[in-house]
Design goal:
Radius of gyration: 19 Å
Structural class: alpha+beta
Shape: globular
Strand content: 25-35%
Order of helices and strands: HEEEHEEEEHHEHHEEEH
Number of strands: 11
């Protein structure tokens, strides 16, 4: 594999992990609820904001006490826009006889001086429709620049070696172990061949194909769409050691 593969990812993890061991008042659609993820080792804290729109209530984070107030505002606007867009898009697409409800929360996958990785989960139901669905998506932000990061920012070359590693990655979903192989077959069987999967992973930043990426202290996570019966999405994590192992 080209040595540029995962060059940015490994650099970011080396750099990022070296440091690791509603608005302010209630508004129409948002309310501040609590402060969390607080740590003296970081230059910012996180509070939870809730977006409300009729029967939609979804939580998303907001950073405070950041060293650069202008950049803090830019980052928070990015977070807010990305967090509520799927729900606003659904509301805008409803027919006159349809109703929509959603209940969502978030998880901080990684928080340090360099990067903030956020994963969102929600239960969604449009009536009348066939069935409710579960939504999973992510936002990754490089804090020094305020830039949103996607899979292609972490992986410089998505090729067959990467695909093989992904297919062997750890499954971290909620389905029982006895069905894990079925989940893998669903996730990767959606694509007619590895070349098609490479293409979909490469353009995953468009947010149109249900593929999302996040980072933790020691892994790269990728969420893949699966059938509703399997939870609508499945997450796989590639450890940093495995990434290093194929960077040769």
């Amino acid at each position: 594999m080209n040595k540029k593969l995962f060059g940015l990812l490994l650099f970011l993890f080396t750099l990022f992990l070296s440091g690791c061991n509603g608005e302010g008042s209630k508004k129409t659609n948002e309310e501040m609820e609590k402060t969390e993820q607080k740590s003296d080792s970081y230059e910012y804290d996180i509070v939870t904001v809730t977006y409300h729109e009729e029967n939609v209530a979804v939580e998303y984070p907001k950073i405070i006490s950041f060293h650069d107030e202008e950049k803090q505002e830019t980052i928070n606007e990015l977070i807010k826009t990305a967090a509520i867009k799927p729900y606003q898009d659904t509301i805008a697409s409803l027919d006159s006889d349809q109703q929509y409800e959603a209940d969502g929360s978030y998880e901080i996958k990684l928080k340090n001086e360099e990067i903030l990785s956020i994963a969102y989960r929600s239960y969604n139901n449009v009536t009348p429709s066939a069935h409710p669905y579960h939504l999973f998506f992510t936002t990754n932000i490089e804090l020094n620049t305020g830039k949103q990061l996607f899979l292609t920012d972490f992986v410089s070359e998505i090729d067959i070696d990467f695909i093989n590693t992904l297919k062997e990655a750890k499954y971290v979903g909620d389905i029982e172990n006895e069905y894990e192989q079925d989940i893998r077959n669903m996730a990767f069987g959606l694509y007619e061949n590895d070349e098609k999967l490479i293409l979909e992973l490469t353009k995953s930043q468009e947010g149109m194909n249900g593929i999302y990426v996040y980072v933790t202290e020691d892994a790269l996570g990728i969420s893949m769409p699966v059938a509703h019966v399997a939870g609508d999405h499945a997450e796989f994590e590639i450890s940093i050691n495995d990434l290093k192992g194929i960077d040769r």
